[in-house]
Amino acid sequence: MNKDLNPAPDERRIWTVSRLNLEAQGLLEGGFPLLWIEAELSNLSRPASGHLYFSLKDDRAQVSGAMFRNRAQLLRFTPRDGMQVLVRARVTLYVPRGNYQLVIEHMEEAGEGRLRREFEQLREKLRAEGLFDDSRKRTLPAFPRQIGVITSATGAALRDILQVLKRRAPQLPVLIYPAAVQGKDAPGQLIAALALANRRQDCDVLIMARGGGSLEDLWAFNDEQLAREVAASSIPVVSAVGHEVDVGLTDYVADLRAPTPSAAAELVSPDLETLGQRVATLGRRLAVHMQHHLQREQQRLGWLEKRLGRPEQRLQQVAQQIDELEARLRRHLQQRLALPAQRLDQLKRRLHGRDPRVLLSLSETRLTGLAKRLALPLPRQVRDRQRDLRQLSNRLNSVSPLAVLGRGYSITFHEGQALHSVAGLQAGHTIQTRLRDGEVLSTVTELKPLPDNEPAK
């Protein structure tokens, strides 16, 4: 609490009324959260501004209340004096007058509050389970063979649906599954009707509908088991419960929500008039397309006729082409037949060369020549070969190094290699000298190279 509110005993502090009311307003607004209050309306006032001013009372007390226009516009009912209401309000103080009051954020008729809280809890539960997900919802058939309606057999909703279907698609059969749509027995009857429709599988789409009413009147369509059955239906379900502002659990779990029963009938039925207009438009487009196609084909036919020309002239040209092809074929066949004949002649000539008689004659001639050569005296041949051998030996000896040694020359070796120069020799090396009739081993004691300009002796 503000320390200025508790001054010392001997201290006198002067407050203004405005400051007092502002401090009181702060204390009230900060000391209370948003409150839910059930009470009776009285002294209701509706000025031109659109705000609502009233009192909320019970049997022992009352408090002033105000509901400003932006919130009052959201009311789904018309407040009246004496009406029991449930409000959500914040506590405040009207500073100019110093009046303690409630500023109303939300107002509904008493009795609906409990139901609305139950509704919110069920909605969040089913949402968490994924029953509201768009991914599990199916598309309605564009041209159903039969429509099923689950509603009261005597209600206005059924009449509205049948009138719309008669206007839009009178040829479309409708199967009615009657069920109570209000009261404690309504959820069970609605579940039974939905189960029957799924067992029989006579319809392509189902409408579950009823007219408008209060939250209590529509409460059957907030039944948890009914919502689960609608979500599990093998036939697509359109939920059309109440007016556009009324929303129940079946609206969330159904494959499609319609704002009214009449709108549901329009959503599930094809409009014959619209379809007729569509068919007429498509027919005109088809006629234009066919006309253009025929024009293109006629142009193509004319072009082909020009290419074809006079048939007899074309036949003459074809006959001439046939004659030319026949002549080419005859020449080709002659060439193909001439090649085997030439090949046959070649094989005949080769075969003649391989004739045993020819080969035998050649062999006999060769044998006769060899026999004549063999008839020469053998000693003469031996003498001739000996004479040739002596001549070759004399020629070989004339170039032999050993013959040079016989004329007084020698050959010196070092380590098996003939010496051509003193380069590479050193004192102490052993050398080998080859003479005509033997070898001499020597040790080098001194090397005396010849001057570059002195000839060797």
Structural descriptors:
single chain, 457 residues, alpha/beta, five-stranded parallel β-sheet, 46% helix
User: What form results from the Cα inertia axes?
Assistant: elongated
Rg calc: 66 Å
Strand fraction equals 15-25%
Strand order of the largest sheet: 1-2-3-5-4
CATH superfamily of one domain: Response regulator
How widely separated are the two ends?
Answer: 147 Å
- Any idea what the CATH architecture of one domain is? 3-Layer(aba) Sandwich
Q: How would you sum up the major sheet?
A: 5 strands, mixed, barrel
Helix vs. strand class: alpha/beta
Residue stretches low in confidence (pLDDT < 50, at least 5 long) are none
Quick one: CATH class of one domain?
Answer: Alpha Beta
Number of strands: 14
- Give the % helix: 40-55%
Number of helices: 13
Q: What is the N-to-C order of secondary-structure elements (H for helix, E for strand)? A: HEEEHEEHEHEHEHEHEHHHHHHEEEE
Can you walk me through this structure?
With 457 residues, the protein is an alpha/beta fold. Among the domains are: 99 residues, OB fold (Dihydrolipoamide Acetyltransferase, E2P); 126 residues, 3-Layer(aba) Sandwich (Rossmann fold), CATH 3.40.50. Helix content is 46%, strand content 18%. It is elongated.
Summarize the structure.
Helices cover 46% and strands 18% of the residues.
SSE layout and pairing:
Elements: H1 17-31, E1 35-45, E2 52-57, E3 62-67, H2 69-72, E4 84-94, E5 99-109, H3 112-128, E6 147-151, H4 156-168, E7 174-178, H5 186-200, E8 205-210, H6 224-232, E9 237-241, H7 249-253, E10 256-257, H8 261-268, H9 272-308, H10 311-353, H11 356-374, H12 378-398, H13 401-405, E11 411-414, E12 417-418, E13 430-434, E14 439-443
Parallel strand pairs: 3-5, 6-7, 6-8, 8-9, 9-10
Antiparallel strand pairs: 1-2, 1-4, 2-3, 4-5, 11-12, 11-13, 13-14
Helix pairs in contact: 4-8, 5-6
